[in-house]
Amino acid sequence: MGSIDHRAGGQWDGGHRPVGPGGPWLISPPQDENGHTLLDEDIAAEAETFMFEGGHELPGATGQEPLVSPHSPNVPIGHDTTASGLAWLFYNLAGHPEHQERCRQEVQELLAGRDTADIEWEDLSQMPFTTMCIKESLRLHPPVTAVSRRCTEDIPLRDGRVIPKGVICLMSIYGTHHNPDLWPEPEVFNPLRFSPENSKGRSPSSFIPFSAGPRNCIGQSFAMAEMKVVVALTLSRFVLRRDTARPPPRRKPELILRAENGLWLLLEPLLGVA
């Protein structure tokens, strides 16, 4: 995505550009992983990997088949976001074997001798610790790091400035999830943040991996269910370990959260599992 040079202070001009003593704010063109500037059609094509459209094309997209309506029984969702979420989840579990083992035991006790292929929809609500691990991974590594919204009314800020109606605001999901005022020790992977007792009194806007409000991700329930199933199938067969021969991953500033050179894990088959 493009980067924003945030300079304190300033007002907005008629074109809704921040100007004045602290401005302007500079927004660089969005670029791909190779540093090439993305055209509008490139951005639209990339956005289609994680956004829903109600039976019509994204603005700027040409020559594309319309996406299926979200009311259809066969609703497409972004494969890139789910892949990113799962990759970072497995990386986090591999780095915390005690949490990984607790998830594995939870799945094994839930299935009680049944094959993982027989997992039922009702089973997914009986995986509380696994759900906490998924949520904590989505907090630490949200697949979509920012979203934009157009203001439908003037919004007064605490410092007295006003964001005028019609302005498009870019909201950082990653920044919110790493705000130490909301999340003590934000860089630590701690699934117990999402235990019922620790979640009491927490603003729902502090955890927004699927955005929030009436325009949040329509596929979030399916995405959570999908991740639970994949985790159950994987941990029932393998032990995940990090490849210590490789350096810690570095985040790449793209639409979807990725790691430079990928995330490398070692999969060790569980004893006694065919």
UniProtKB/TrEMBL annotation:
InterPro entries on file? Cyt_P450 (IPR001128), Cyt_P450_CS (IPR017972), Cyt_P450_E_grp-I (IPR002401), Cyt_P450_sf (IPR036396), Cytochrome_P450_Monoox (IPR050196)
Note one Pfam family from the annotation. p450
Q: Which GO terms describe its molecular function?
A: heme binding; iron ion binding; monooxygenase activity; oxidoreductase activity, acting on paired donors, with incorporation or reduction of molecular oxygen
Stretches for region Disordered: 1-36
Please provide the record's keywords in A-Z order: Heme, Iron, Metal-binding, Monooxygenase, Oxidoreductase
Residue ranges crossing the lipid bilayer per the database entry:
none
Q: For binding heme, which residues are annotated in this chain's numbering?
A: 217
> Per its Swiss-Prot or TrEMBL entry, what cofactor is needed?
heme
UniProt KW Heme keyword: yes
- Identify the stretch annotated as signal peptide in this record: none
Q: Which family does it belong to?
A: Belongs to the cytochrome P450 family.
PANTHER family annotated for this entry?
CYTOCHROME P450 FAMILY 4, CYTOCHROME P450 FAMILY 4 SUBFAMILY F MEMBER 11
Q: What is this protein called?
A: Cytochrome P450
- In its UniProt entry, the species of origin is given as Chloebia gouldiae
Give the lineage. Answer: Eukaryota, Metazoa, Chordata, Craniata, Vertebrata
